Amino acid sequence: MFSRQKKAQSISEETKVIDRNNIPAHIAIIMDGNGRWAQKRHLPRIAGHREGMQTVKKVTIAASDLGVKVLSLYAFSTENWKRPKDEVSYLMQLPIRFFNTFVPDLIKHNVRVTVMGNIDKLPKDTQKAVHDAIDQTQECNGMVLNFALNYGGRDEIVDAVKNIATQVKSGEISVEQIDESLVSANLMTNMLDEYEDPDLMIRTSGEERISNFMLWQLAYSEFVFTDVHWPDFDAKTLEDAIIEFQGRHRRFGGLTK
Ligand code: IPE
Ligand code: IPE
Ligand code: MG
């Protein structure tokens, strides 16, 4: 499945088991390939999105069971508005369907919902579903399920620059006080505290690009690309990606780990 890497792996590595003591704290996923999954089955693209929603449920529980601290899921980008109107409106309804059926399970698994992105631009009923889910799960202190909805990494950075410029202009801070931690603090991931930067970024469906996702935060993340389309992703493929992560040597610019 992880074809390129697999070639370099020995049989013993392929059968490696997951190390439960080295689970990436923050996993970010670009959930891609819903449309192609549907087209392969001669179904409309939205059938892929519907199935993809089921995958979100399964993968959320799987990640929570593995002890992941934050699962960030890219659900709708600032560029996805370019899609046909029908598809966009279906995608806007999905969070409503998702939270209506899944909040009790999230609470049962102690999962807290957070959202990053420009929520104010979403339809009113979608905004309400999102805010309700955030409120209903606010007491949960297990995994954080962080949805990127109408999210763009560049948009996020532009917002941060505006905020910082405003603080400088008002005299609240000086230019000299602008540093990496101040920039981070002005990004939408600020609420994730020490987990704001993903350890592992997974993209499904074979595309190998980040499509405006978490540009700042992915600076030192490990990337895993899989050919599996999002509706076919599951607990097993998640574990495979984590096993691949566990075989990497993160150096953060230094020489040894
Ligand atoms: C991912 O699947 C879901 C969203 C981007 C909203 P796509 O809809 O991008 O599926 P493909 O890439 O066209 O197959
Ligand atoms: C990225 O997928 C956005 C989401 C998964 C929400 P796209 O399908 O929109 O990305 P591109 O257009 O292939 O780069
Ligand atoms: Mg796509």
Brief account:
The chain has 257 residues and is of the alpha/beta class.
Protein described:
This is Isoprenyl transferase. Belongs to the UPP synthase family. Homodimer. InterPro entries: UPP_synth-like, UPP_synth-like_CS, UPP_synth-like_sf. Its EC number is 2.5.1.-. This protein has helices spanning 3-8, 11-14, 34-40, 45-66, 85-108, 124-136, 153-169, 180-185, 235-246, and strands spanning 26-30, 70-77, 112-116, 144-151, 200-203, 222-225. The chain has 257 residues and is an alpha/beta fold. It has one domain (23-246): Undecaprenyl pyrophosphate synthetase. It has a 6-stranded parallel β-sheet, with helices on both faces. The longest helix has 24 residues, at 85-108. It is globular. The two termini are 28 Å apart. Residues 6-12 have low confidence and may be disordered. The chain binds 3-methylbut-3-enyl trihydrogen diphosphate (2 copies) and magnesium ion.
Notable traits:
magnesium ion binding, Undecaprenyl pyrophosphate synthetase, 43% helix, manganese ion binding, UPP_synth-like, 13% strand, 9 helices, alpha/beta, 257 residues, magnesium, binds magnesium ion, 6 strands, globular, binds 3-methylbut-3-enyl trihydrogen diphosphate
What is the first-to-last residue Cα distance?
A: 28 Å
Give the overall shape, derived from the CA principal axes: globular
Per CATH, the superfamily is Decaprenyl diphosphate synthase-like
Q: Mind describing the biggest β-sheet?
A: 6 strands, parallel
Bound molecules: 3-methylbut-3-enyl trihydrogen diphosphate, magnesium ion
- The domain tally reads 1
Secondary structure class reads: alpha/beta
Which strands sit side by side, in order, in the main sheet? 3-4-2-1-5-6
**Strand tally:** 6
Order of helices and strands: HHEHHEHEHEHHEEH
- The CATH architecture comes to 3-Layer(aba) Sandwich
Poorly predicted regions are 6-12
CATH topological fold name = Undecaprenyl pyrophosphate synthetase
Number of helices: 9
Helical amount among residues, as a percent range? 40-55%
Mean pLDDT: 95
The first-level CATH class name: Alpha Beta
| Proportion of residues in β-strands | 5-15%
**Rg, Cα atoms, Å:** 19 Å
